[in-house]
Amino acid sequence: MPISRVYPGGSEVLKPRKIIFSRKGFDTSSGGCPSPILPDGRLLSLPIPDTRSKVRFGDIEHSGINLSDPVKALTKGRLDGASGAHIDPDLNATAIARQPGWRPVFGQSGAAQGHLHNQQVGAGDLFVFFGLFRPVLREGDGWRFDPASPARHVIWGWLQIGDILKVDQADENLRHWAGYHPHFRWSDDPSNTLYLPQNRLEMGGGTSLSGSGCFKHFSSSLQLTDRRAERPGIWALPRWCFPKASGEVPLSYHGRTDRWRRDTHQVVLQAVSRGQEFVLDTQAFPEAVRWMRCILTSNATLQD
To answer: Angle CA(241)–CA(116)–CA(209) in degrees, nearest 5?
Structure first.
């Protein structure tokens, strides 16, 4: 059953009060390498490995590519099509075979879910999924990372929250179409939570975007990493995105002021190396809504 459809306080949500930058997909710790940016610019976010998952990499297809081949090539055989894949967030309707009634879905649990709860994340708030990506080259029948192109953090998807449900309270209909989802393997965790999207994106000003989706192609506006940086965790953000004199910090887990630096036309952030969910409060930083709306709508034609 839904926990909430409105933001705490009871008022209707017309735009996100919280924007959550959610780190998802392969990286050097989970998977062992970045996800690929294909030679034609397609983004191929690889779900992290999961031995408990019912879904295998060989079951998943994105942009016409079965994930078995790139996963095996880029991990140098450590993983292959038979390896379990933590397909979460699951945003692409055509990625695997679906049961009737399927909806995009994202799960969270443990300390990360506790952080979302403590930050009062609720219906109408916006998850912005980013991950570690690096361009690849095609060689014969395989893939390899382009040695001339470094890894970078890139936004690859979004989900504006419609319903929030505890896995332990899921009804039979939800279990029927979502039973494949990896968070149904964790029934012993009372914090285990699913987020389902709104039908349409609501961010003020009107958009024609779905309430969730993923981007098919890379563009510079989706890149968080400063293009001059030597490490992916050095981000280039808008000028307004800087800690306030009154103490508000744009992103949770980034309270140290020495992580933030004003540059000529941007703010440079040294993002924390670990952590999954970084929450931005748009009541303190209202410019964030227009910024994110511009990023999403300008890439609408690239939607998968």
So the answer is: 65
In a domain, 47, yes or no: yes
End-to-end CA distance of the chain: 29
The two beta strands, 212-214 and 260-262, are unpaired
Task: Kindly report, residue by residue over 139-153, the tens digit of the pLDDT.
Answer: 887 899 999 999 999
3-state secondary structure of 99: coil
Q: Is the pTM of this model over 0.85?
A: yes
- Read off the tokens for 70: 């790139």
In the chain, the largest separation of any two C-alpha atoms, in whole Å, equals: 58
pLDDT of residue 4: 41
Q: Is residue 291 part of a domain?
A: no
Task: Let me know: does 133 contact 36? Beta carbons within 8 Å.
Answer: yes
User: Which residue, among 96, 121, 165, has the nearest Cα to 22 in the 3D structure?
Assistant: 121
In terms of residue numbers, what domain contains 96? 18-216
Give the number of domains in the chain: 1
E strand residue ranges, the chain: 18-23, 35-37, 61-62, 65-66, 106-108, 126-139, 142-145, 152-166, 193-197, 212-214, 234-237, 260-262, 267-270, 277-281
Cα 23 from Cα 237, distance rounded (Å): 17
* Coil, helix or strand at residue 296: helix
Task: Give the pLDDT band (50/70/90) at residue 88.
Answer: very high
Residues 6+ apart with CB under 8 A from 20: 116, 119, 121, 125, 126, 127, 128, 277, 278, 279, 280
Does any domain span residue 276?
Answer: no
pLDDT at 8 over 60: no
Label residue 206 by pLDDT band (50, 70, 90). Answer: low
Contact 248, 254 (CB under 8 A): no
Q: Which amino acid is at 193?
A: T
Q: Which residue has the tokens 């994105």?
A: 62
Pairwise pLDDT comparison (9 vs 232), residue with the higher score: 232
